[in-house]
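Need Four-carbon acid sugar kinase family protein's 3D structure for a figure. Predict it.
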Amino acid sequence: FFWKYCSTFDSTAEGNIGPVSEALMADLGASQTIYCPAFPENGRAIFMGNLFVGQQPLAESPMKDHPLTPMRDSNLMRLLAPQVRGAVGLVDRLTVAKGADAVRAALDALQSDGVAHVVTDAVAD
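Structure prediction for Four-carbon acid sugar kinase family protein:
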């Protein structure tokens, strides 16, 4: 099941991404879900769980001083954790670069450790 969330991680730490994900997981009977809010073509990349805006971590980008929703943390796992009840983990770039089998093994290992919400790195389309 693919859910295109229109809320963004780069505009507010509080949000509905986590609660909506958990509601969908409950309705679908899913025990784990993946978050990858990267769009490298538009300058949004995830590396080691941190959101980059162009060449800058989110917390060093102009979003850090946004008058309504300043973003002072680039780490998506820390941003997501308060929005969800389950544990949050990471499949990093090195694992992603090894291919689908490595990603599946990492997801399985995280699930065995009780991780329900997984951020995945993406630095290229």
